[in-house]
Design a protein that fits this description.
With about 250 residues, the protein is of the alpha/beta class. The chain has a single domain, classed as Decaprenyl diphosphate synthase-like (Undecaprenyl pyrophosphate synthetase, 3-Layer(aba) Sandwich). It is built from seven helices and six strands. The protein is globular and about 60 Å long. Bound molecules: farnesyl diphosphate (FPP).
Length: about 250
Protein backbone atom coordinates (compact mmCIF):
# COMPACT_ATOMS: atom_id res chain seq x y z
CA UNK A 1 0.00 0.00 0.00
CA UNK A 2 1.24 3.49 -0.77
CA UNK A 3 1.47 6.33 1.67
CA UNK A 4 -2.17 7.11 1.35
CA UNK A 5 -5.03 5.01 0.21
CA UNK A 6 -8.06 7.09 -0.64
CA UNK A 7 -10.29 3.99 -0.74
CA UNK A 8 -9.49 2.96 2.77
CA UNK A 9 -11.97 4.26 5.29
CA UNK A 10 -10.14 4.97 8.50
CA UNK A 11 -12.07 4.17 11.59
CA UNK A 12 -11.82 6.93 14.11
CA UNK A 13 -10.93 4.44 16.89
CA UNK A 14 -12.00 5.79 20.22
CA UNK A 15 -12.19 9.39 19.07
CA UNK A 16 -15.33 11.00 20.45
CA UNK A 17 -16.69 12.58 17.30
CA UNK A 18 -18.95 14.89 19.31
CA UNK A 19 -15.96 16.56 21.00
CA UNK A 20 -13.49 17.06 18.20
CA UNK A 21 -11.14 20.03 18.30
CA UNK A 22 -12.26 22.56 15.69
CA UNK A 23 -8.67 23.51 15.00
CA UNK A 24 -5.55 21.34 15.16
CA UNK A 25 -2.07 22.77 14.58
CA UNK A 26 0.99 20.65 13.84
CA UNK A 27 4.74 21.29 13.78
CA UNK A 28 5.76 18.86 11.03
CA UNK A 29 9.10 17.91 12.58
CA UNK A 30 11.56 15.09 12.07
CA UNK A 31 11.85 14.93 8.29
CA UNK A 32 15.64 15.33 8.35
CA UNK A 33 16.17 12.62 10.99
CA UNK A 34 13.81 10.25 9.18
CA UNK A 35 15.87 10.64 6.00
CA UNK A 36 19.20 10.31 7.82
CA UNK A 37 18.08 7.05 9.47
CA UNK A 38 17.62 5.69 5.95
CA UNK A 39 20.84 7.07 4.49
CA UNK A 40 18.84 9.48 2.33
CA UNK A 41 19.29 13.22 1.78
CA UNK A 42 17.23 15.45 4.11
CA UNK A 43 15.17 16.55 1.12
CA UNK A 44 13.80 12.99 0.81
CA UNK A 45 12.30 13.45 4.28
CA UNK A 46 10.56 16.66 3.23
CA UNK A 47 9.13 14.95 0.13
CA UNK A 48 7.57 12.23 2.25
CA UNK A 49 6.57 14.92 4.78
CA UNK A 50 4.57 16.73 2.10
CA UNK A 51 2.73 13.47 1.28
CA UNK A 52 1.95 12.97 4.94
CA UNK A 53 0.54 16.51 5.08
CA UNK A 54 -1.84 15.60 2.21
CA UNK A 55 -2.90 12.44 4.04
CA UNK A 56 -3.50 14.22 7.34
CA UNK A 57 -5.40 17.12 5.71
CA UNK A 58 -7.72 14.57 4.08
CA UNK A 59 -8.15 12.75 7.36
CA UNK A 60 -9.02 16.01 9.15
CA UNK A 61 -11.66 16.63 6.50
CA UNK A 62 -12.97 13.09 6.95
CA UNK A 63 -13.16 13.52 10.73
CA UNK A 64 -14.80 16.95 10.53
CA UNK A 65 -11.96 19.03 11.95
CA UNK A 66 -12.52 22.53 10.55
CA UNK A 67 -9.00 23.97 10.57
CA UNK A 68 -5.57 22.35 10.24
CA UNK A 69 -2.55 24.65 10.61
CA UNK A 70 0.92 23.35 9.77
CA UNK A 71 4.37 24.84 10.16
CA UNK A 72 5.97 24.41 6.73
CA UNK A 73 8.74 27.02 6.78
CA UNK A 74 9.77 29.37 9.56
CA UNK A 75 11.35 32.80 9.35
CA UNK A 76 14.53 31.04 10.58
CA UNK A 77 14.48 28.23 8.00
CA UNK A 78 16.20 30.43 5.36
CA UNK A 79 19.44 29.49 7.20
CA UNK A 80 19.18 25.94 5.83
CA UNK A 81 21.25 24.80 2.82
CA UNK A 82 20.00 26.31 -0.45
CA UNK A 83 19.02 22.93 -1.93
CA UNK A 84 16.86 22.15 1.09
CA UNK A 85 15.09 25.55 0.92
CA UNK A 86 14.59 25.02 -2.81
CA UNK A 87 13.10 21.56 -2.25
CA UNK A 88 10.62 22.81 0.34
CA UNK A 89 9.55 25.71 -1.93
CA UNK A 90 9.26 23.23 -4.82
CA UNK A 91 7.01 20.97 -2.73
CA UNK A 92 4.80 23.92 -1.83
CA UNK A 93 4.58 24.93 -5.48
CA UNK A 94 3.70 21.37 -6.47
CA UNK A 95 1.04 21.26 -3.77
CA UNK A 96 -0.53 24.55 -4.87
CA UNK A 97 -0.58 23.46 -8.53
CA UNK A 98 -2.27 20.26 -7.46
CA UNK A 99 -4.70 22.16 -5.20
CA UNK A 100 -5.76 24.36 -8.14
CA UNK A 101 -6.75 21.18 -10.03
CA UNK A 102 -8.35 19.28 -7.18
CA UNK A 103 -9.68 21.81 -4.67
CA UNK A 104 -13.30 21.62 -5.82
CA UNK A 105 -13.33 17.86 -5.47
CA UNK A 106 -11.05 17.54 -2.43
CA UNK A 107 -12.75 20.33 -0.46
CA UNK A 108 -9.51 21.36 1.22
CA UNK A 109 -9.15 25.12 1.07
CA UNK A 110 -5.86 26.89 1.66
CA UNK A 111 -4.65 29.92 3.51
CA UNK A 112 -1.06 30.99 4.05
CA UNK A 113 0.19 32.55 7.29
CA UNK A 114 3.44 34.48 7.01
CA UNK A 115 5.30 37.19 5.15
CA UNK A 116 5.12 36.00 1.57
CA UNK A 117 6.97 38.95 0.02
CA UNK A 118 10.39 37.20 -0.14
CA UNK A 119 8.88 34.32 -2.14
CA UNK A 120 9.39 34.07 -5.88
CA UNK A 121 6.82 35.95 -8.01
CA UNK A 122 5.67 32.55 -9.29
CA UNK A 123 4.95 31.26 -5.79
CA UNK A 124 3.26 34.52 -4.82
CA UNK A 125 0.99 34.28 -7.85
CA UNK A 126 0.09 30.69 -6.94
CA UNK A 127 -0.70 31.76 -3.38
CA UNK A 128 -3.03 34.46 -4.72
CA UNK A 129 -4.73 32.02 -7.03
CA UNK A 130 -5.25 29.35 -4.37
CA UNK A 131 -6.45 32.01 -1.90
CA UNK A 132 -9.02 33.26 -4.38
CA UNK A 133 -10.21 29.73 -5.22
CA UNK A 134 -10.41 28.84 -1.55
CA UNK A 135 -13.07 31.49 -0.96
CA UNK A 136 -15.47 29.40 -3.09
CA UNK A 137 -14.77 26.16 -1.21
CA UNK A 138 -16.64 24.90 1.79
CA UNK A 139 -14.46 22.31 3.50
CA UNK A 140 -11.56 21.94 5.89
CA UNK A 141 -9.23 24.96 5.89
CA UNK A 142 -5.54 24.12 5.76
CA UNK A 143 -3.42 27.02 6.99
CA UNK A 144 0.16 26.68 5.81
CA UNK A 145 2.66 28.70 7.81
CA UNK A 146 5.26 29.86 5.34
CA UNK A 147 8.06 32.28 6.21
CA UNK A 148 6.17 32.44 9.47
CA UNK A 149 7.34 33.36 12.97
CA UNK A 150 5.08 33.91 15.96
CA UNK A 151 7.03 36.90 17.25
CA UNK A 152 7.18 38.39 13.78
CA UNK A 153 3.40 38.00 13.47
CA UNK A 154 2.83 39.80 16.79
CA UNK A 155 5.25 42.60 15.88
CA UNK A 156 3.56 43.15 12.53
CA UNK A 157 0.18 43.34 14.23
CA UNK A 158 1.49 45.81 16.83
CA UNK A 159 3.03 47.98 14.12
CA UNK A 160 -0.16 47.95 12.05
CA UNK A 161 -2.23 49.04 15.03
CA UNK A 162 0.35 51.69 16.02
CA UNK A 163 0.22 53.09 12.47
CA UNK A 164 -3.56 53.41 12.72
CA UNK A 165 -3.21 55.18 16.08
CA UNK A 166 -0.58 57.55 14.65
CA UNK A 167 -2.94 58.31 11.77
CA UNK A 168 -5.69 59.14 14.30
CA UNK A 169 -7.86 56.26 13.07
CA UNK A 170 -7.69 54.26 16.33
CA UNK A 171 -7.26 54.94 20.03
CA UNK A 172 -4.92 52.71 22.12
CA UNK A 173 -7.82 51.90 24.49
CA UNK A 174 -9.72 50.29 21.62
CA UNK A 175 -7.23 47.44 21.48
CA UNK A 176 -8.78 44.33 23.04
CA UNK A 177 -7.58 40.75 22.72
CA UNK A 178 -10.22 40.09 20.07
CA UNK A 179 -9.35 43.28 18.18
CA UNK A 180 -5.65 42.40 18.25
CA UNK A 181 -6.44 38.99 16.74
CA UNK A 182 -7.77 40.75 13.67
CA UNK A 183 -4.27 42.10 12.90
CA UNK A 184 -2.70 38.62 12.91
CA UNK A 185 -2.22 36.34 9.91
CA UNK A 186 -4.79 34.09 11.58
CA UNK A 187 -7.54 36.75 11.62
CA UNK A 188 -10.93 35.07 11.53
CA UNK A 189 -9.57 31.62 12.45
CA UNK A 190 -10.40 30.31 15.94
CA UNK A 191 -7.41 29.53 18.16
CA UNK A 192 -6.16 25.93 17.95
CA UNK A 193 -7.42 23.74 20.77
CA UNK A 194 -4.72 21.15 20.10
CA UNK A 195 -1.09 21.70 19.05
CA UNK A 196 0.90 18.61 18.10
CA UNK A 197 4.67 18.32 17.81
CA UNK A 198 6.00 14.96 16.73
CA UNK A 199 9.67 13.88 16.63
CA UNK A 200 10.47 14.09 20.34
CA UNK A 201 11.16 17.84 20.51
CA UNK A 202 9.27 19.52 23.34
CA UNK A 203 9.20 23.18 22.40
CA UNK A 204 7.09 25.60 20.42
CA UNK A 205 9.81 27.08 18.17
CA UNK A 206 8.04 30.40 17.54
CA UNK A 207 4.81 28.74 16.37
CA UNK A 208 1.43 30.44 17.00
CA UNK A 209 2.67 32.29 20.08
CA UNK A 210 -0.47 34.44 20.44
CA UNK A 211 -2.93 31.74 19.43
CA UNK A 212 -1.54 29.01 21.74
CA UNK A 213 -2.70 30.72 24.97
CA UNK A 214 -5.20 28.00 25.92
CA UNK A 215 -4.13 25.23 23.55
CA UNK A 216 -3.53 21.69 24.75
CA UNK A 217 -0.16 20.31 23.68
CA UNK A 218 0.58 16.80 22.46
CA UNK A 219 4.16 15.65 21.98
CA UNK A 220 5.14 12.26 20.60
CA UNK A 221 8.30 10.58 19.32
CA UNK A 222 6.96 9.67 15.88
CA UNK A 223 8.90 11.43 13.12
CA UNK A 224 6.61 13.43 10.80
CA UNK A 225 7.12 11.13 7.77
CA UNK A 226 5.83 8.24 9.93
CA UNK A 227 2.86 10.24 11.27
CA UNK A 228 -0.41 8.53 10.38
CA UNK A 229 -4.14 8.73 10.90
CA UNK A 230 -3.62 6.52 13.97
CA UNK A 231 -1.10 9.03 15.40
CA UNK A 232 -3.64 11.81 14.96
CA UNK A 233 -6.32 9.66 16.59
CA UNK A 234 -4.00 9.10 19.57
CA UNK A 235 -3.42 12.86 19.90
CA UNK A 236 -7.14 13.63 19.73
CA UNK A 237 -8.01 10.88 22.22
CA UNK A 238 -5.39 12.25 24.62
CA UNK A 239 -6.78 15.79 24.14
CA UNK A 240 -10.29 14.53 24.89
CA UNK A 241 -9.12 13.22 28.27
CA UNK A 242 -7.88 16.66 29.32
CA UNK A 243 -9.79 18.84 31.70
CA UNK A 244 -9.86 22.25 29.99
CA UNK A 245 -10.66 24.93 32.55
CA UNK A 246 -9.43 28.16 30.88
CA UNK A 247 -8.34 29.54 34.24
CA UNK A 248 -11.64 28.64 35.92
CA UNK A 249 -12.39 25.82 38.35
CA UNK A 250 -13.71 22.34 37.73
CA UNK A 251 -17.51 22.22 37.63
C1 LIG B 1 10.99 20.16 10.02
O1 LIG B 1 11.75 18.97 10.00
C2 LIG B 1 10.35 20.35 8.72
C3 LIG B 1 10.50 21.46 7.94
C4 LIG B 1 11.30 22.62 8.32
C5 LIG B 1 9.86 21.51 6.60
C6 LIG B 1 8.47 21.00 6.53
C7 LIG B 1 8.00 21.08 5.14
C8 LIG B 1 7.32 20.11 4.49
C9 LIG B 1 6.87 18.83 5.12
C10 LIG B 1 6.94 20.31 3.07
C11 LIG B 1 5.79 21.28 2.99
C12 LIG B 1 4.90 20.98 1.94
C13 LIG B 1 3.55 21.06 2.04
C14 LIG B 1 2.77 20.61 0.87
C15 LIG B 1 2.82 21.56 3.22
P1 LIG B 1 13.34 19.05 10.10
O2 LIG B 1 13.89 19.15 8.73
O3 LIG B 1 13.74 20.16 11.01
O4 LIG B 1 13.67 17.65 10.72
P2 LIG B 1 14.87 17.31 11.69
O5 LIG B 1 14.60 18.03 12.99
O6 LIG B 1 14.75 15.83 11.83
O7 LIG B 1 16.14 17.75 11.03
Amino acid sequence: MGLFDSKKSYQAGQVDMSRLPRHIAIIMDGNGRWAKQRGLPRTAGHKVGAEVFRKIARYCKQLGVEYLTVYAFSTENWKRPADEVETIMGLLKQYMLEAIETMEEEKIRLKFFGDLTPLSPELQALVEKTNAMSKQIDGVQANICLNYGGRDEILRAARAFARECAAGEKQPEELTEAAFGDYLFSAGVPDPELIIRPSGEVRLSNFLLWQCAYAEFYFCDTLWPDFSEATLDAAIIDYQKRDRRFGGVKK
